[in-house]
Structures are given as structure tokens and as C-alpha cells.
Amino acid sequence: MTTDTNAVTTGHVRFDPDETFMLLIDHQDGTLNFVRNVSRAGIVQNTRALARVAKALEMPVVLTSSQEDQAQGPLIEDLKEILPEAYEKRVRRGGIANAWGDPDFKAAVLAAAGGRRNVIIAGVTNDVCTVMPAISMTEEGFTVKVVQDAGGSINSTAEEVAVRTWERSGALTTTTGALIAELGVDWSTPRGGALAQITFEELVANLDKF
To answer: Which residues are catalytic?
Structure first.
């Protein structure tokens, strides 16, 4: 699917799980401390939910981190717990801010995606780690949905500008709960029921963290 990068994508594009893959970018212990516009606990819960959804739907996932031996620290233990194989295969970048600009990350993503062209992206921080690959991948013809509440920014102004910037490039914005409902389609089906359980366990049961 080719995206016109000179116009903002409008309307609703429904993602089919069988045509979609997921990228979780820089959800690191230290990087989460840079976020000030939303709670750290809320980001972690939403990220846990996304990881569990990807696992339940057998959706390809690529994890990446930046400079784990610096202030950013390691990826959160929740990802190691939920997606141990993806965690072990994570792309540890040496410092390239735009993950898509790292040859190892790009190769890992293309290998995981296969022919899938719909990509779910969540990252920390939104104003640096999320916005740049979202724009780059949109420019290369992927249909991108950014899960805004599975990330955050250094302040509310940075967050607002990041969202406007990726939407101007053609990437779409969603939330964890909305995305899960979209992928589940019908709560009465086995797939929908599994995702409903994740929603209740990760989101509804932890509302005080948001």
C-alpha cells in the first residue's frame, strides 16, 4: 500500500491481525524516567497489554533498545517475561535515534514483517523514539498506527508536537484499548474473548495506574 506523504491520512483503517506486525521501541527502565506528561506505570501497563495481544494473536514483534549500558538502561522486565524470544532477539542499537535508520533494526523488521504492510508502533519517548520511525516507515509505504498511550514525552508540548508531526506524515494515532477492540472485532469469538481477558487483566484491573 502506497501512502501519499504530502497529505494527512484521514478516516479509519482497520488492521487485520494476519496482515499486521508490531514494533516496541525503547521501553527501557531509564528511558521511562524521561517521560513527564503521563505516568510511568500507565505506560508499562499499556505496553504489557500490547505485548500480550501480539503473543495471543501470534503477531510478529520486534523489540529494540538504545544504549542499554547508559542512562537508558535495559528493556523493562515485563517484555522479557511476556515475549522472551523477542527479548533475546532484540536489536540493541548503539545510539541511532531513529531506529529505522539502524541497518540491523531495519533488517530485523523486514524479516519479521514478511509481506505484512500494517505496523503498530509504540515507543518511549514519543517525541524522539516514536515519531521518527513512524514517519520513516510511512514514507516507505507502510500503514502505521502509533499507540500513543504506550509511550509518552518529556512534557505535554513535546507530546502534542510529536502527534501532529507523525499525523502530518500520514501515520495514524490510536490508544491501547481502541487497538485491542479493533483487533478483537467481536468479544464473543474465541479471539475476541482472549483479547477481552487481556483488556480486563492489564487495563481495567489497573485503572488507578493511569
So the answer is: 129
Q: Please count the other Cβ atoms lying within 10 Å of the Cβ belonging to residue 193.
A: 12
Q: Number of folded domains in the chain? A: 1
Exposed, middle or buried, 8 (CB in 10 Å: 0-12/13-18/19+)?
middle
Q: Extract the runs of DSSP E, i.e. beta strands, from the chain.
A: 20-25, 61-66, 91-93, 118-123, 143-147, 172-174
Q: Which domain holds residue 44?
A: 17-200
pTM beyond 0.90: the answer is yes
Q: Which of 113, 170, 124, 117 is nearest to 147 (CA)?
A: 124
Taking alpha carbons only, the member of 209, 164, 152 closest to residue 34 is 152
pLDDT digits (tens, 9 = 90+) for 37-64: 999 999 999 999 999 999 999 999 999 9
